[in-house]
Amino acid sequence: MSHTDKEYHVSKEAAKWLLALEEDPENGELSTRFDEWLQESPEHEAAWSDALGIYDDIGNTEPAHREYWEESEVAHSEGEGSEKPEKWGRRKLLYFFASAAAACLAFFVWPSISLKLEADYIASTGEKLTLTLDDGSEVALGGRSALKVDFDGNERRVELLQGEAFFEVKPDAERPFSVEAGDLRTVVLGTAFNVRLKEESAAVSVEQGRVSVHQITDTAELDFLEAGEWFELEASGRIEKGKVDSSEIGLWREGRILARDRPLSDVVESLRRYYSGVIILQGEALGQKRVTGVYKIDDPAAALRALASSAGAEVRQVSPWVIVVSSESVD
Predict the structure, then answer these.
(1) Nearest partner of 110 among 253, 232, 254, 272, judged by Cα
(2) Which residues fall within 8 angstroms of residue 66, CB to CB, at 6 or more apart?
(3) In degrees to the nearest 10, what's the CA dihedral of 37, 270, 323, 56?
(4) Rg of the Cα atoms in the chain
(5) Contact yes or no for 258/294 (Cβ under 8 A)
(6) How many other C-beta atoms lie within 10 A of the C-beta of residue 147?
(7) Alpha-carbon torsion 44, 46, 47, 51, what sign?
(8) Are 234 and 200 in contact (CB under 8 A)?
(9) Rounded to whole angstroms, how far apart are CA atoms 281 and 313?
(10) Which residue, of 249, 255, 263, 265, has the fewest CB within 10 Å?
(11) Pairing of β 192-197 and β 201-208
(12) What's the rounded Cα separation, in Å, for the pair 297 and 275?
């Protein structure tokens, strides 16, 4: 997982803890698991601190997990007849709580300063950016995606730093074209293919032509792919491959996501790049449910409702910037 992906993953976890602790502040088991998560690494502590800082700017309220909140000093009248302000209702508090999480993620994570400095091209949330590289190759860059280009006299190399991109490579036998994404390198002379960098894996699917795929860390050549084949390398080293209709590859360029027996979490991850806020998927078991369908990326909220319907889940719009997807059994 890249540094930027890790930042996003940890910040998203912090936002989930914010919501969970507020919804069930008396849950001792939940508090214990939160303590363990918080102490796992300095990155967890930093993400939690950032989230709380944004929340404190939104407003003052009784902490959900008192020992990790710094009580704000609120000036108010102590005169006779004054009353202590009542605690906000759960739903109203959750609205501001989730808004704070969204602000934290939007400000600190996308795009991060390090990503801005490293990338040559960045597509913002919901944007589909079309590029023509110096060699004449065409690239379609999906929402919340970033690309770094490094061409020289002997090699054409690009790196997908985040998100998803579709490449139509101009043939040049003297200068191979390679795309790096996570620990996966795809090498071609001239072809059309899609590359996607996910939180825990990288995947390539070929629309036309032929590519070779390699593992960057040990330079091993893993496989050759032809039109209609896909290949995915997980961070653990696990490999998956299969076949798909070539016409379905890179369908996001037409504003649609096609899911064929994909985990719900995988489709939600794609939709996040087209939603200008935060989508929180609660529960690992829910995320592993398999879904099939075609979903429009120009309306992520509607797509999520359709996903939830097929997966036996519910969608809550807890603020204009935060959507929570959870099992129907969750109150």
Answers:
(1) 272
(2) none
(3) 50
(4) 22
(5) yes
(6) 24
(7) positive
(8) yes
(9) 10
(10) 255
(11) antiparallel
(12) 8
Q: Provide the residue type at 101 as one letter.
A: A
| CA dist., res. 215 & res. 102, Å (int) | 35
**Alpha helices, DSSP H only, in 109-175?**
113-118
Measured distance CA(57)–CA(68) in Å, rounded? 16
Residue type, 61: T
Residues in the chain, total? 331
Tokens of 250: 């890179």
Nearest alpha-carbon partner for 324 in 8, 9, 18: 18
Give pLDDT tens digits along the chain (331 positions): 544 456 667 777 777 787 777 667 778 888 888 888 888 888 888 777 766 655 554 444 344 444 444 443 343 444 444 444 444 444 444 555 555 555 455 444 456 667 888 999 999 888 999 999 999 999 999 999 999 999 998 999 999 999 999 999 999 989 999 999 999 999 998 899 999 999 889 999 999 999 999 999 877 778 999 999 999 999 888 999 999 999 999 999 999 999 988 999 999 999 999 987 788 888 889 999 999 999 999 999 999 999 999 888 999 887 777 888 988 654 4
The C-alpha atoms of residue 92 and residue 76 are separated, in whole angstroms, by 22
How far is 233 from 247, CA to CA, in rounded Å?
23
Cis peptide before 63 (omega within 30 of 0): no
* Residue 135: C-alpha distances to residues 149, 152, 207 (Å): 11, 11, 20
